[in-house]
Amino acid sequence: MTQYAAQEEDDRFAILAILGKNPGRSVKEAADKALNGNAADLRYFLETGRYKAQEDDDRFAVLRLMAQNPSEKFRTAASKALDGGPAAVRQFLEVGQYQVS
Where on the tree of life does the source sit, at the highest rank (predicted)? Predict the structure, then answer.
């Protein structure tokens, strides 16, 4: 087995491990696309694509929470997170949503 074949096998395994953690729709779709592609597609997903897809899933999760929560204070905090970029969205999902009363 060449080093390239071994790397491709490792990349496929890494993507399958990500899928095993029950990711959101965008990550699943990007992972499936990578798995159906070539070695470069696998590498792109692991280095870049999964993070972009996770940002989409995170934004969708915040929007879903906004739809479920009628509190104006909550919706304002969620909107502020969405305007703040990927790190703000992730922080809101992990911590901020629980701090809004």
Answer: Bacteria
3-state SS class at 100:
coil
Nearest to 24 by CA among 43, 66, 52, 48: 52
With the C-alpha atoms ordered 43, 10, 12, 21, is the resulting torsion angle positive or negative? negative
Burial class (CB in 10 A: 0-12, 13-18, 19+), 30: buried
Q: Is residue 5 very low, low, confident or very high in pLDDT (cuts 50, 70, 90)?
A: confident
Maximum distance among all Cα pairs of the chain, rounded to whole angstroms: 59
Q: What is the pTM of this model?
A: 0.86
Q: Is the pLDDT of residue 7 over 70?
A: yes
CA 1 to chain centre: 32
How far is Cα 12 from Cα 39, in angstroms, rounded to an integer?
9
Question: What is the distance between the alpha carbons of residues 34 and 53, in angstroms, rounded to a whole number?
Answer: 12
Cα–Cα distance between 33 and 101 in angstroms, integer?
40
